[in-house]
Amino acid sequence: MKHLTSINDLTRDEALAVLELAKEMHDVQQRPVKKLPALRGRTVINLFFEDSTRTRSSFELAAKWLSADAINISAKGSSASKGESLRDTLLTLDAMGVDAIVMRHAGSGSVHQARGWVNTSMINAGDGTHEHPTQALLDAYSMGADLEGKLVSITGDLLHSRVVRSNVLLLQKLGARVVLVAPPTLMPAGVEHWPATVSHDLDEVLPDVDVCMMLRVQRERMLGGFFPSEREYIAFYGLTAPRLKKLKPDAMIAHPGPMNRGLEISSAAADDPRSIVLNQVSAGVAVRMSVLYHLLAGE
Ligand code: NCD
Predict the structure, then answer these.
(1) What DSSP string describes 183-223?
(2) Could you give the domains of the chain?
(3) Is the CB of 58 under 6 A from ligand 1?
């Protein structure tokens, strides 16, 4: 495994191996001294052309806790803002001899395309509306060991979400069933060919799910009106306080963040005892440590 640009880069066994090693990394994360020497002398560049809090900081921590050197570059402040092409930026970093580039970019497919330009390992930290594979891995990790037969609902702005695409691919590999819930205007084209069922009725879905994943309404990617009003969106698709009662007592509430509290998810839901939102953040570092280890330290 050299690159991770899509969940399709991983076989089921490789995905399970990443999740397995993440458990060990999670133990390291709980220690007062968090350094492992595994990637000493290696260099990881975080190249972020879109905003990020948790993905970027967790990749940086993951690299550092494995003793790799980590450098952060964001579009603002890089030569991209002087008109340099993406290819030239990548060739420049590659020429310095770095070992991995973790890239987030607005172009769907851009990280995959970059694989053909550079010698270094490319890791997709979110490419447009295409994929976000490490997010799906950390989501699966947070949902627990055995996902075989589990029912996971993914509700929200699916049209603009890279998280949903990676999650559907991974959850299917791991044997879970997925139900996608969104208004027709926020359903991706071709969703009928995805290995998932589709619903427009959140209330009907909630009582059966083992995991209820809510996704952010991505206003920054919306050019037009995708729903009549926020009030109407919340009424039909928000995980509101009254809706929480429909969930099973042992169901999990997940959200990759950042959350729009009061829109797709109420504070009551985000802070409910069934919420695994902060577990997802914590798992993010462990899973990314595991991914960096698998890509850079070999088998
Ligand atoms: C997601 C992303 O950037 O795709 N966030 C994340 O990485 N945790 C989801 C989002 O932006 O809503």
Answers:
(1) -GGGSPTTGGGSSSEEES-HHHHGGG-SEEEE----GGG--
(2) 7-132+281-296 (3.40.50.1370), 133-276 (3.40.50.1370)
(3) no
